[in-house]
Amino acid sequence: MKYAPRFLHVVVAAAAGILLACVFPPLNFPWPLAIGAFIVWVQLLRRCENLKQTILIGFGFGFGFFVTLLQWIKIVGTDAWIALTILCTFWWVVASVAAKLSMSTRWWPIAIPAIWTSAELLRDRYPFGGFGWGQIGVITPMTPFANGAALVGQLGMTFAFVATATFILWIFSNSRSVQRKTTYLSGSVVLVSLFGFTPAVTDFFEPAVGNAQVTLGIVQGGVDHYGLGVVGDPRTVLSHHADATVSNSSQLLNADLIVWPENAADVDPTLDMQSAEIINDVQKTLPKPILLGAIRNVSDSTRANVSLLWENEKWTQVYQKRRLVPFGEFLPARSLISQFTDRVNLMPRDFEPGTTPGFVEINGVSMAVLICFEAADDWQALAASEDSSVIIIQTNNATYQFSGESEQQLQSAQMRALETRRPVVVVSTSGLSAVTDPHGRVTDSISQTEIGALVRTFPEVAGTTPAVFMHHLIIAFVLMLSTVLTAAGIHNRRKVAS
Fold first, then answer.
1. Rounded to whole angstroms, how far apart are CA atoms 383 and 359?
2. Which of 24, 206, 213, 460 is the most core-located residue (most Cβ within 10 A)?
3. Percentage helix, strand, coil for the chain under 3-state DSSP, each rounded to 5
């Protein structure tokens, strides 16, 4: 019975992680449950007596969350799903250990959210370039505090959600008076309400609208089947999008630019004459420039995931994807992994990352281009938004159809809109394709497996939000705060031990 309470605590931590994941799409449980999950996590850490228990609580919390949130990876393979879950959970273990150390200081209610936010920053970058999917701040669009995203961005909102949990615990653990606790909580509700419900605060930073405008035509052409190997026969996906564009040509007639999704050209159209001819035939029917996703052959050993602007029977490489997905677009330790599975043959060549941001300009309106999982990286969208009026996200979600991945990616797109106060256009091979307004609201969409087109006009805008120009300051703040307070916690523990 000595180990029963410890085991039970780990089970509770895992349950809290599962509950937290359920707040995310596609389940969309009420957002306050996220605060409750963090309260449980912190309270369990406070009960830990040693490092081993702390690690187990962190592992249980992280594993429960990621194994639920990332269940769509099962389509690639159960081993890939569990491996990615453990990789992401590592940073939650690190956060748990640092959080426990900080509890020996009086500043732990501030230290823990700073530590958590720092761990999310690191998870988004390390190892292998990181995997930042599912950061807590991305739930902001489904809360009443969406206006705050323009002020502090996703990182700041992550800090705020965790800080809410630690502050609630601090109130109830440090004040014995019911009246004082009520006063503290009431004051907190007022402050949070002002932060979240006062549009005047963020409307002050609303980008200025210019005279120029651009009309985009978004085409979702569909695929033959889903899961691994969605491309099918050569040029099939390209033909689907060409056919969908021609069949919706009357709707797309007023568009200044037609946008096709990532991997719309499944055979490199810069080298394959048959693919190029399919695109040219579309433009003979509908003489509009097309922005399309394609896979380019860089060399015998590498490929590139690119966005091409196709016009007048020629192409311009607009953007080469910079943020590649480990194990999805390149294989770290390829020779080692190949000894355990033959699925490395599904990706015989690694992709090569780009080095510069992507933009396309039509009618004097500049638009930023992101590809697929880059939607989850706030730093890329924030940097690109300063020189653009619209953010275009080209994606191919056919592999993970009806698994929740598309909904989670759309939520990231909504967050990018909230932070930058820019409309965000998501165009997918098989859904979800959607238009999100500058306030993070989905104004129109094409559902999964549906074939169709959307046409929307966007104005030129200028200006930026505090979330954009303070992004690096917020990063520096949370990293410094977490480092200082963790170090203070270590110092206090050594002092007590001596």
1. 12
2. 24
3. 55, 20, 30
- C-alpha 249/C-alpha 243 separation (Å) is 10
Q: What is the DSSP annotation of 396-410? A: --GGGTTTTHHHHHH
Scanning 233-349, the segments in alpha helix (DSSP H) are 236-247, 249-252, 273-285, 334-337
- Only one residue has tokens 């979240």, namely 196
Percent above pLDDT 90 for the chain: 69
**Start-end of H helices in 130-219:** 149-174, 178-197, 199-203
Higher pLDDT among residues 471 and 173, named by residue:
471
Give the 3-state secondary structure of 289-302. Answer: CEEEEEEEECCCCE
Residues across the chain: 498
pTM: 0.93
Q: Residue 427: CB partners within 8 Å, gap ≥ 6?
A: 218, 219, 220, 259, 260, 261, 392, 393, 394, 395, 433
Strand partners, 436: 424, 442
Q: How confident is the model at residue 226 (pLDDT cuts 50, 70, 90)?
A: confident
Q: Extract the tokens encoding 119.
A: 């761990």
- Listed in sequence order, the residues at least 6 apart from 410 whose beta carbon sits closer than 8 Å to its beta carbon are 25, 426, 432, 434, 436, 442
Separation CA 331–CA 350 (nearest Å): 7
β-strand pairing of 257-259 with 302-311: unpaired
CA-CA distance, 310 to 264, in Å (whole number)?
13
Residue 334 near residue 344, CB atoms below 8 Å: yes
Express each pLDDT in 282-329 by its tens digit: 999 999 999 999 999 888 788 999 999 999 999 998 899 999 888 778
φ and ψ at 341, to 5 degrees?
-150, 145
The strand pair at 350-351 and 302-311 is best described as parallel
d(CA 486, CA 498): 19
**Separation of alpha carbons 359 and 159, rounded Å:** 31
Tens-digit pLDDT profile for residues 428-471:
999 899 999 999 999 999 999 899 999 999 999 998 899 999 99
Q: Is 280 exposed, middle or buried (0-12, 13-18, 19+ CB in 10 A)?
A: middle
Q: Which residues are bridge partners to 428 per DSSP? A: 395
Contact between residue 219 and residue 427 where contact means Cβ atoms under 8 Å apart = yes
Give DSSP secondary structure letters for 347-360: S-SEE----S-EEE
Return the ∠ at Cα 280 (arms to 274 and 282), rounded to 5°.
Answer: 110
Task: Say whether pLDDT at 153 is over 50.
Answer: yes
What is the helix (H) or strand (E) element at residue 223, kind and residue range? Answer: none
Name the nearest CA neighbour of 398 among 173, 161, 247, 228.
Answer: 228
Contacts with 213 (C-beta within 8 Å, 6 or more apart), sequence order? 363, 365, 457, 458, 459, 460
Distance CA 88, CA 130 (A): 9
Q: Which residues, including other chains, have CB under 8 Å from residue 97's CB and lie 6 or more apart? A: 51, 54, 55, 58
